[in-house]
Structures are given as C-alpha cells and as structure tokens.
C-alpha cells in the first residue's frame, strides 16, 4: 500500500471512530454481554451512591468528581482511562483500593452504589435493575464509551 | 543574661547582614557586620565563618501550596526484579521510599541494564515520576527508542510532592527484610546517582543545587540512635509494620566520602538565637527547572509520551514494545498487589520563594529548605520521630493545620529576635 493510500485509510478509520462507528472486531470484543449503555443501574441506587460518594470519596475527588491537581477526575478523562475494560475492573478498583487511606473498607454493596453514581454522573443511562456485585455479572458489562446504534446493539445481544 | 544580650544583637545581625553589601569581614574571634554588630566567631577558621543569612518570612499567610504525598516504601527495598507478561519482559523499578529522587539515576541504570539484555530497539516506560523519567532518559542514552506511558507527567506525580533533596537512604528499606546484600546494591545506585547529578550542577535555573543546612536546638542535640529501643518489643516481623527507627535501613556510612561532616558552630557564631548550632550541606533538586530540563532532554532525544492508565498487569503485555520498565511508584501496591509496600505519608508547606535565602534549617521538629520554586517547610505532625513519621498513613489529603504548625515553629524562631530599633 502506498503512503498516500495508507494515510487515506488511516483518515477514514479516524473519521469512522470519531463518528462512533467502531470496526466490527473491536465492537464484537467490547460487547460480549451488556454495556454501560444498557441501563445497568437504577436511579435509586445512584442516589444512595451519591451519599456514599460524599462520605468516602469527595474529600479527594471533589464534590462532583471533578478531581483536583493531584487527584484524577471521575468524569471526562476518567471515561477515556476506563474505556475497553469492564465494570468488574472498575468495581475492583473501588472496592479493593479505595478510599486511599482505608482501602478495602467499603462494603460490596456500597462500592456498587458508588459505581452506579459514577455511571450516572457520566451520563450513562439508568435502568430498572440494580448493579450487582458479583464478578460474573460485572465482568459481563463492558465499559464502552461509544453509544451503540440500536441495530448494532441488538445484533450483538442476539449472538 | 548572656542569652538575652546575644539575642538582641542577633536580630540586627540577621536583618542588616542580609542586606549588607559587604558581607562578613573579620578574623580571629569576631566578625564585624555593617552597623558594628559582631558575631562571636572565636575558634572558627576564617573560611568557616557563616556567610550572611537572610531572614525567612515564615508566616502562615505566605503558604501558597500544601503538597501531600505517599512515599512508596517497600520493606525489601526497591523492586528491580524482572518477569514476563505474555511475550513482554517487564523490568520493575519502584518502591524507593523516601530515596526516589536521590537514587533515581542509579536505579535507572540497574533497570536499563536488565532491559537492554535482550537488545530491544524500543522500550516502554510506565510512569512519569522521577523514577520513570530518569529510566526513560537512561534507556535513550543506551540507544533505545522510548515511549513513556503515564496518566500524569512529572509535575502532577507524587514525586514533586516529596522533599526532593539528597536523602539516599531515607526509608529505602528495612534492614532485616532487605537482607545483607542490599547494601552493595544501594551503594552502587547512590554513587551512580551522585555522579550523574554532578553533570547537572551549575546549569541555568540551578536544577541541582547545594545549600548550608543549620540544625538548631535549645538543648544539646540527641546523639544518633545506635541500637534498638529496648522499650519497643514488636517489629515488622511480628506485626507486619515497622515499630521503630532502628528497623529502617541506614547505609549512609558507606558513602561518607561524598558528603562533608556536620560542623558544630559556637554559640553566637550565627545570628540564630539558640545555644546549639551545627551546619551541614545538602544537595537538593529544584523541581521546576530540573523537571523541565529532564522532560526537554527526553523529548529532544526523540522520546514520546502516551497518556494512558493501566488497570491490570496483563495490559503491559499488550504494548507494542516488548520490553517494559515499570515505574508506578506507590500505585504498585494495588496494581501489582505488592504486599511489601507500606504507605508513608509526608506533607510539605510551600512558602513564597525568597531567592535571597540561601540556606536551610531545622528547629523544634520543623525543617526548612529554600528552593528556587519556594521555601519548603515540613512539620513533625505527631509524636513519631525520624523514619517512623507517617508510617502506614495513606491519607493524602493536605492538612492546613499541620502546614501552619510547621510554619509557626519557624516563625516563632524568628520572633525570638527583638524588634529593630529605629
């Protein structure tokens, strides 16, 4: 392939990614089960999580997850940081390493509630079922930043 | 009383001396300052007479930053082991406790030698604190093309929230857990680093600098602890945490040839209103200029930085570079499940820079160092002393009270100088 053709191909790929059209292989990998776009928590759970967040997290990450000079935000670049993982990874981070001065002290249900709040803060939709705490359940929910098109989503779920 | 008399003199000496054009002049028992005040320098050789000392404006409202960090203390000493993940060789380089800045170049040299043993053309460095950045530059100097993968660049890492002075065996390990061979490795790293730092002396912005350090006390200074405290029964081996200073590795005697001995100064030989004064010298790192210089050097040699956060060790195996130098600092405790890592909290209050202050001091549990980017003040936050301060405390939220306490300790020292008469 000539350099010009390579640049053209790369440009098209970038446009496709920018428009939220992931290559099929990437999407297939990211949607083995549900994604964070599928309403994986409830509003009530997020509300509980907000209270827990204020109690355990806000002192470092700020009242609304905005972060500080030394503490990473839980919005914005936070999404980029966790894209491509599953909620099991993020839950594990919260449950085993946070808060920094007392890691491992959050009960599983509280960690899940806080995770629900973070999803809400980042504008991922709520649903009818609360987020669970089992690795199997959380590991099946991909942290996928790209909102799937309905057709792509149903195709993925149908497989 | 003698103390009161010398105290009255001292305030004038400190203030006028700092503004004087001529500095000190004098020989054989006294130094005459402009205005006629005299220091009691009897017994001091001419070259040892303290230079003029500008006062520090140590007031809490001049605190412009409070930085809190967790030192990546590892009881066995820094992890420089290797392992493979997938088809990638991982060379660890983390866990330097309070010695990261000091040992960085020597540690980087050890890590890069291991990395280069498989002749990679490309090397990935994970982390961009002082350990990661020096490892990256060292790898470039060894001929590799280097990409740093990091969430934050140096100025937002824990490295620049540390003290940043030459303290090569500060909480670097526990003696028993590190084992008898660690001393040789430590000495190798310390000497290599020290040599490297010499090449950064005298550059614009003073990235690396030296300063006189005055240790001040109203009571006779305590002798160095030579043995364990018999009143403390537990230890790391029995509790999982160090219980006393004696457990921490102390290797400074191995490099005594690199640094001058502390010098006791006679009472009244300095403007400080205390009975006991000793003076030593300390090498330190000006974060702003040194950090900028290192990043420029890295970029200048073709280095690339990719902003990325890792969540699992397995992700390192997916990097395109198949040799990875892993420099995560304290983050290793969680990501690598390193059970030997123990957090050690430290906090520093920063006062607005005073370029005219060219010395540091310690007094009453507080210490001060004047850097180009601010005056650092560290308090002693609780009853613990020495290496035990902050052990197993991972609270990284800055304490304004602790910051002000430290500054007020220094402030109180200067308030002991009587006000200037008109």
Order the strands across the largest sheet of chain B as they lie in space. 3-13-16-15-14-8-10-9
Major beta sheet summary of chain B: 8 strands, mixed
**Count of separate DSSP helical elements of chain A:** 9
Helix content of chain B: 10-25%
Describe the oligomeric state of these chains in a short phrase: heterodimer
Q: What would CATH call the class of chain A? A: Mainly Alpha
Indicate the structural class of chain B: alpha/beta
**Main beta sheet of chain A:** 2 strands, parallel
Summarize the structure.
The complex is a heterodimer of chains A (159) and B (422). Chain A is an all-alpha fold and 159 residues long.
Explained architecture:
- The complex is a heterodimer of chains A (159) and B (422).
- By secondary structure, chain A is mainly alpha-helical.
- Chain A has a single domain, classed as Cytochrome c-like domain (Cytochrome Bc1 Complex, Chain D, domain 2).
- Chain A contains nine helices and two strands; from the N terminus they run H-H-E-H-H-H-H-H-H-E-H.
- Chain B is α/β, with parallel strands linked by helices and 422 residues long.
- Chain B is 25% helix and 23% strand.
- Chain B is built from nine helices and 16 strands.
- In chain B, strands 3-13-16-15-14-8-10-9 form an eight-stranded mixed beta sheet, with helices on one face. Chain B has a six-stranded mixed beta sheet with strand order 4-5-12-6-7-11, covered by helices on one side. A two-stranded antiparallel sheet of chain B has the order 1-2.
- In chain B, a hairpin with a 5-residue loop joins strand 1 (29-32) and strand 2 (38-41).
- Chain B is globular.
- Mean pLDDT of chain B is 89; it is low at 1-9, 15-28 and 32-37.
């Amino acid at each position: 392939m000539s350099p010009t053709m390579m640049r053209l191909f790369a440009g098209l790929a970038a446009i496709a990614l920018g428009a939220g059209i992931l290559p099929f292989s990437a999407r297939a990998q990211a949607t083995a089960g549900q994604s964070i776009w599928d309403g994986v928590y409830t509003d009530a759970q997020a509300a509980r999580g907000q209270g827990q967040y204020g109690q355990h997290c806000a002192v470092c990450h700020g009242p609304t997850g905005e972060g500080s000079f030394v503490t990473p935000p839980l919005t914005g670049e936070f999404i980029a940081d966790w894209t491509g993982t599953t909620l099991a990874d993020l839950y594990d981070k919260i449950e085993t390493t946070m808060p920094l001065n007392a890691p491992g002290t959050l009960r599983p249900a509280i960690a899940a509630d806080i995770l629900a709040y973070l999803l809400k803060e980042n504008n991922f939709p709520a649903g009818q079922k609360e987020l669970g705490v089992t690795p199997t359940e959380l590991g099946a929910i991909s942290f996928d930043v790209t909102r799937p098109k309905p057709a792509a989503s149903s195709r993925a779920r149908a497989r | 009383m003698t103390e009161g008399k010398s105290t009255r003199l001292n305030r004038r000496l400190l203030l006028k001396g700092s503004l004087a054009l001529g500095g000190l002049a004098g020989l054989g028992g006294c130094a005459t300052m402009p205005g006629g005040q005299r220091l009691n320098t009897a017994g001091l050789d001419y070259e040892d007479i303290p230079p003029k000392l500008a006062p520090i404006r140590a007031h809490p409202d001049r605190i412009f930053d409070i930085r809190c960090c967790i030192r990546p203390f590892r009881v066995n000493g820094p992890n420089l082991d290797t392992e493979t993940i997938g088809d990638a060789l991982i060379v660890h380089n983390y866990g330097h406790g309070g010695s990261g800045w000091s040992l960085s170049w020597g540690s980087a040299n050890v890590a890069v030698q291991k990395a280069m043993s498989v002749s990679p053309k490309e090397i990935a460095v994970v982390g961009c604190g002082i350990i990661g950045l020096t490892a990256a530059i060292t790898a470039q100097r060894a001929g590799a093309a280097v990409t740093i993968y990091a969430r934050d660049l140096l100025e937002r890492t824990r490295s620049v929230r540390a003290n940043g002075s030459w303290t090569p065996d500060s909480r670097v390990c526990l003696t028993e857990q590190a084992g008898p061979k660690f001393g040789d490795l430590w000495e190798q790293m310390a000497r290599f680093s020290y040599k490297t730092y010499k090449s950064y002396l005298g550059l614009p912005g003073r990235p690396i600098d030296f300063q006189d350090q005055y240790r001040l006390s109203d009571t006779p200074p305590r002798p160095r602890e030579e043995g364990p405290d018999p009143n403390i029964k537990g230890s790391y081996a029995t509790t999982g945490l160090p219980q006393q200073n004696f457990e921490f590795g102390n290797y400074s005697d191995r490099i005594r040839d690199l640094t001058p001995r502390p010098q006791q100064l006679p009472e009244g030989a300095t403007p400080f209103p205390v009975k006991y004064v000793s003076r030593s010298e300390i090498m330190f790192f000006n974060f702003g200029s040194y950090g900028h210089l290192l990043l420029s050097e890295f970029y200048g040699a073709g280095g690339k930085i990719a902003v990325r956060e890792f969540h699992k060790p397995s992700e390192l195996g997916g990097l395109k570079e198949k040799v990875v130098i892993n420099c995560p600092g304290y983050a290793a405790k969680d990501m690598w499940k390193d059970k030997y890592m123990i957090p050690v909290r430290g906090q520093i209050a920063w006062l607005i820079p005073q370029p005219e202050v060219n010395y540091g001091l310690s007094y009453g549990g507080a210490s001060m160092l004047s850097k180009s980017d601010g005056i650092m003040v560290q308090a002693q936050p609780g009853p613990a002393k020495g290496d035990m301060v902050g052990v197993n405390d991972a609270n990284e939220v800055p304490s304004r009270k602790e910051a002000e306490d430290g500054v007020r300790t220094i402030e109180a020292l200067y308030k002991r100088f009587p006000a200037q008469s008109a």
